[in-house]
Amino acid sequence: MVFSSLEFIYLFLPPVLLGFYVLRALRLESAIIWWLILASFAFYAWWSPTHLLLLFGSILFNFGIHKWLLRRHSKALFIGGVVVNLGLLAIFKYADFLIGNVNAVANLDMTELGLILPLAISFYTFQQISFLHDTWTARVKPCDFKRYVLFVTFFPQLIAGPIVMQRDTIPQFRLAIFTNRTILNLVLGSTLFFIGLFKKIVLADGVAPFANAAFGLADQGQMLPMTASWLGAVAYTFQIYFDFSGYCDMALGLARVFGIRLPINFNSPYKALSIVEFWHRWHISLSRFLRDYLYIPLGGNRSGLLGRQGNLMVTMLLGGLWHGAGWNFILWGALHGFYLIVNHGWTNSRVRATMRAAVPNVIYTTVCWGLTMLAVIIAWVFFRAETFQGSLVMLQSMAGLSNAVTADWLDIIPDARMAPVMLVAMLAIVICLPNGLELTVSYRPVLSAAKELIGTRMAWWNIRWSPTPAWGLAIALVGSLSLVQIYRLNDLTEFIYFNF
Questions:
Q1: Which of 32, 171, 273, 418 is paired with 18 by a 20 to 30 Å CA distance?
Q2: DSSP readout, 81-111?
């Protein structure tokens, strides 16, 4: 079940909300928590009842390690808990990748396990590792079993994040939060949900056929005209943007109707003027996890210049591998690691300081933005292509090294004449309009510490949402257009990050 499905909107969400409001009217705090846990289990089991047992087993194991660490501060126990979590993730996500590569290198014929990747295993594994670490370092918030279960399984963020820390949500699982500002939470939550639904169904899924057509041919080894390859790459650049941005808005909105604020996870990364800033804005909760639990423990900035560069590269390589068991994901992570190293070197160079002083600000800013976007688009090619050969074909075609006739792009891209218009419109939306958090910033859509992260740079005008009839009509129109588009879709696509 996905947020953008009719089953979720019409069959799942209404009874869950009804039960929640009945229990909150009775002021039954424990019952509310157990009701949300039951709803979250049902949400997960819709995909696979069998893997629900794996999720529950993981919860029991980690909560047991947590309680044991509270009684006995054992480093071996903590390390053992982390190893078991990573081992489980490795078996389901990376075992076949490893077996396949060993077979290729050693000319062996070991049988792959053929395990189905459990939905959200990367997210709930990292989340529970952070919980064990906070327990080990005595930074964990007091919680009982039911609050821990809800912390792991809360359905708005279970499947694709954000990766929440225990300090983010466990303190909010209280009656005072559940019963606070009912109407505002419902209206604000619905607004964010329908904004996200529009981004996903109308924008991301609307541009997906352009990307699918181009990358599909590239993965088959067919060279593309330069125009078609760039249209495909740029289309995917906007598809993944609006897909992930839409999911994040919907997750924030769904959590908010229950009174819960989630941490910021997406903040207009295509407005970034550098790769460093891009990673401060893209998948923020993953960046925070990798920084706090990998980059800093490796030595962070304290290891000298070469050590820092090595730590950056290792962190980004593992960040790429987290997204999927494939060499293309590893190369995507390595490329971003290289970008970050270059970015840090440029930031500290005298040449940058000289150029910054000599070049007019508007020109310097535009060039920085253009180079950042170019780097991001090239990296997305590895992320999207199903095969390494496919990514090379795309890059060669984008570089103009294809023998394909340029005029043939009209036959390669579906609705090709509309593609450039749609992509330019999406660029205007990304650059000129405020995102969902900027739009609703006056009503604290995310945890308070994130408010300072929300900027309006490169926005041409300032728009703010408020719970008025006019805004209600506008959001109702956006939601209606999205629902009509859902009915028109022959096969509903999943969110891209559901695959990780």
A1: 171
A2: HHHHHHHHHHHHHHHHHHHHHHHHHHT--PP
